[in-house]
């Protein structure tokens, strides 16, 4: 019997973009009880004082944090991930309990992502991407835009309303077709849960290939 999730799961989002994440728009906010949150935990060093934080979004140029302390814009900080890498930067913006950090030097997001493979309970991080995919539901085949992907599924922008629990097959360029289930729909976006986990090593290799192709085309 297949298991269908009824709610979106909010996790740390990784991006290959060189830009630091900007503030959250009011239209992007969601009620906390509608989501299960699995953000990556880190620590932030502010003026020799260490505080815990949640990492909501990380790119090559910066990150968005959920903080539990007050900090002023332009303050120099150092963020440490669980894997132990210190990353230096400055607070670029603050809003409510959130803050943006611009790194002093760009980081290799794929190296950070690969580090999640260590340990007995690997994470299932989401990675922001910009590509189109083919989605098949029954006899219908449609082209969809993929917003992010993880080992366990993908978030797509889709004009066609997919029935909750519908069996689908999604094909991303360069990856084998992935059978899955439409598990949630919200504001023109749909979450697809894969029937089988995509190996993290395969996901990382695919991301490296996409990054190399993008750099070659630039």
From TrEMBL:
Residues 29-110, 123-177 form the PilZ domain. SUPFAM superfamilies: PilZ domain-like. InterPro entries: PilZ_domain (IPR009875). One of its GO terms (molecular function) is cyclic-di-GMP binding. This is PilZ domain-containing protein. It comes from Sphingomonas cremea.
């Amino acid at each position: 019997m297949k298991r269908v999730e009824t709610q979106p799961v909010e996790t740390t989002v990784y991006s290959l973009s060189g830009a630091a994440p900007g503030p959250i728009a009011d239209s992007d906010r969601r009620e906390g009880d509608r989501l299960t949150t699995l953000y990556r935990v880190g620590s932030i060093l502010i003026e020799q004082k260490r505080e815990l934080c949640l990492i909501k979004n990380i790119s090559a140029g910066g990150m968005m944090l959920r903080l539990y302390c007050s900090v002023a814009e332009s303050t120099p900080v150092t963020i440490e991930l669980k894997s132990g890498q210190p990353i230096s930067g400055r607070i670029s913006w603050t809003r409510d309990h959130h803050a943006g950090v611009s790194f002093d030097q760009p980081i290799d997001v794929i190296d950070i992502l690969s580090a999640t493979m260590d340990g007995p309970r690997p994470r299932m991080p989401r990675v922001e991407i910009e590509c189109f995919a083919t989605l098949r539901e029954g006899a219908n085949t449609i082209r969809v835009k993929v917003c992010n992907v993880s080992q366990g599924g993908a978030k797509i922008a889709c004009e066609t309303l997919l029935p909750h629990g519908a069996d689908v097959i999604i094909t991303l360029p360069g990856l084998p077709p992935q059978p899955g289930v439409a598990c949630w729909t919200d504001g023109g976006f749909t979450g697809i849960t894969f029937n089988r986990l995509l190996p993290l090593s395969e996901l990382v290799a695919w991301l490296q290939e996409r990054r190399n192709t993008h750099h070659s085309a630039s």
